[in-house]
Each structure stands twice: as C-alpha cells, then as structure tokens.
C-alpha cells in the first residue's frame, strides 16, 4: 500500500503539469498570431480560439491583452537570450575575443529568424503607443547593452565604461538595422544585402577598434 502522502501529492503534480501545458498552448497560439498577423490582431478571444482553450480559462493565466503580449514576447526573448548566454559561457571559449565574437555572431544570426525579427518589429511598433511595450523593450535593451559593453571591456580594458556602452549601443543598433534590411530582402525575394560573416567582421571592428 502506498503511503497517504503519495496519494495527495500525485494529483497536485498532475494538475501542475496540465497547467504548464495549457499555458504553453496559449503562448504558442499568441506567438503564432503575432508572427503572422501582428500586434493589432492579437486579442484574448482569438488566442483562446487558436489554442482551443476557453476564454475564461485563458483569462485565468493572462487576464489582459497586455499580460499575454508581455509573456509571449518574454518567452521568445528568454529562449533566444539563454541560447546566446550558453554559447558565450562555453568552457572552450576562454578568451575574451572568442566570447565577444560568438555573441555578435549570434546576434547577427538571429536576424535570419522570421519569428524573432517579426516579434521585434511588432514590439517596436507597439512601443510607440503602449507604455507596457515600451517598458518591455527598454528592459530588454538595457540588459543587452550592459552585457555587450562588458564583453567589449573584457577585450579592451583601456576603454572606459562610457565608451564601451557607446560602442555596445552602436553594435546593437547595427544589428537591428540589419534585421530590417533582411526583412525587406525577404519580402522582395532578393538575396541578403550583406552576409553574416561581413556583418560580424564589421561589428567586431566597431566594438574593438582603437578609435
């Protein structure tokens, strides 16, 4: 006979897994709507329909459209960010130049992702008129600038904090510009305006140059 504690723990564990799966279905549906139809098309009702979950159930997890958008974007950003952090923390990349190069390469590679590029376009657009979206964007870029500035200073200890931050902002601005040009190239069925290798080489020089 199983102890009584086992009988009480199992239903809670099963319920927890169901809740996680339900939340995942909702986020996947919201992300699909954002990627294919944009921020203006995202509502709690159509997210519920797309995930085949009752509206009242969806509202238990995400009571407002803003909460759903924030979680959908944060989920995508966190996954992409975790992958980049894993790459630069790889023990085989002990030297600062290798870590910086890998981080910049990952940023440039991310511009080839339709999902990530689409999400950022929608975030930029929403941030113009919605304070909650502006806060999400500010938080993301603050973290990205801080990390990139640290990687730059690891390579150039002689560069002060203000200058390393300036360079980090310039690098990230260039990456965002690259993503927009690649989006236009895709829409026009053209070859990429610039290769990843060329972009990485240029941005490495921008980040570590003597000037």
Low-confidence stretches: 1-14
The whole-number mean of residue pLDDT values reads 85
Number of helices: 9
CATH architecture of the largest domain: Orthogonal Bundle
Which topology of the largest domain does CATH recognise? Tetracycline Repressor, domain 2
Q: The biggest beta sheet, please?
A: none
Oligomer: single chain
CATH class of the largest domain: Mainly Alpha
Q: Report, as a whole number of angstroms, the end-to-end distance.
A: 75 Å
Describe this structure in words.
The chain has 2 domains: 1-63, Homeodomain-like (Arc Repressor Mutant, subunit A, Orthogonal Bundle); 72-211, Orthogonal Bundle (Tetracycline Repressor, domain 2), CATH 1.10.357.10. It has helices at residues 4-37, 44-51, 55-61, 65-88, 96-110, 114-127, 131-155, 161-187, 196-208. α5 (96-110) packs antiparallel against α7, α6 crosses α7 and α8 (161-187) packs antiparallel against α9 (196-208). It is mainly alpha-helical and 211 residues long. It has 9 helices and no strands.
Question: In brief, what are we looking at here?
Answer:
The chain is mainly α and 211 residues long. It is built from nine helices and no strands. Mean pLDDT is 85; it is low at 1-14.
Which features would summarize this protein structure in a list?
211 residues; mainly alpha; Arc Repressor Mutant, subunit A; Tetracycline Repressor, domain 2; 2 domains; 9 helices; 0% strand; elongated; disordered N terminus
């Amino acid at each position: 006979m199983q102890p009584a504690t086992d009988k009480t723990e199992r239903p809670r564990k099963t319920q927890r897994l169901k809740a996680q799966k339900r939340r995942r279905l909702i986020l996947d549906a919201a992300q699909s709507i954002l990627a294919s139809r944009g921020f203006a098309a995202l509502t709690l009702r159509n997210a519920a329909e797309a995930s085949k979950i009752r509206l009242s159930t969806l509202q238990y997890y995400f009571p407002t459209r803003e909460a759903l958008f924030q979680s959908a974007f944060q989920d995508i950003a966190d996954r992409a960010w975790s992958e980049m952090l894993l790459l630069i923390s790889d023990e085989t990349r002990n030297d600062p130049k290798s870590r910086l190069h890998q981080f910049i390469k990952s940023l440039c590679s991310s511009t080839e992702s339709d999902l990530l590029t689409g999400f950022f376009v929608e975030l930029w657009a929403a941030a113009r008129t919605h304070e909650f979206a502006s806060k999400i964007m500010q938080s993301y870029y603050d973290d990205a600038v801080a990390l990139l500035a640290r990687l730059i200073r690891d390579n150039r200890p002689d560069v002060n904090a203000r200058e390393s931050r300036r360079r980090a902002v310039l690098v990230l601005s260039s990456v965002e510009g690259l993503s927009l040009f690649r989006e236009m190239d895709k829409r026009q069925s053209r070859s990429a305006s610039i290769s990843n290798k060329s972009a990485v080489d240029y941005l490495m020089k921008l980040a570590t140059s003597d000037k």
